[in-house]
Design the sequence.
C-alpha cells in the first residue's frame, strides 16, 4: 500500500495494517513530496494516522462527515486531515496539561469542536 493524503485509503486495507506500518506510510508520503512535518515526522504522521483511522471507521465517529464537509468548503483532503488533527491535538494537549476538567467527556468535546471547525477558520489558524 502507498499512502496519499489527498486520496482516502481503502478502509479495510488501512485498518489491516498495524500502527507502525501506517505511520511509516505517512512518513514516506511526506518525504516523497518533501512536505513539512514540523519538529517530528513521526508525531506528524501519528496525527494523520489517528484521523485516517477515524475516517476508516466510518460512521462510528463524526470525523468522516467533518472531512467531507471541510473538502466541500474548499480544503483539499490533506489540509482537511490537518485541520481535524489540530482539533484532536488541542484536546490531547488540554487533557495532558490539566487545562480541562478531568471529568469532561472529551469525545463530546471533540465532536463539538469538529462541528465548529470550518475551512475558513482553519485557513486563519492553520
Sequence:
Amino acid at each position: 500500500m502507498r499512502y496519499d493524503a489527498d486520496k482516502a485509503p481503502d478502509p479495510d486495507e488501512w485498518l489491516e495494517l498495524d500502527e507502525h506500518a501506517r505511520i511509516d506510510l505517512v512518513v514516506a508520503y511526506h518525504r516523497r513530496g518533501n512536505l513539512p512535518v514540523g519538529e517530528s515526522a513521526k508525531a506528524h504522521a501519528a496525527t494523520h494516522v489517528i484521523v485516517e483511522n477515524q475516517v476508516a471507521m466510518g460512521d462510528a465517529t463524526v470525523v468522516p462527515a467533518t472531512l467531507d464537509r471541510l473538502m466541500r468548503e474548499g480544503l483539499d483532503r490533506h489540509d482537511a486531515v490537518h485541520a481535524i488533527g489540530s482539533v484532536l491535538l488541542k484536546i490531547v494537549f488540554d487533557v495532558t496539561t490539566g487545562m480541562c476538567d478531568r471529568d469532561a467527556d472529551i469525545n463530546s468535546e471533540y465532536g463539538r469542536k469538529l462541528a465548529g471547525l470550518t475551512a475558513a477558520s482553519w485557513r486563519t489558524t492553520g
In short: The chain has a mean pLDDT of 94. The radius of gyration is 14 Å.
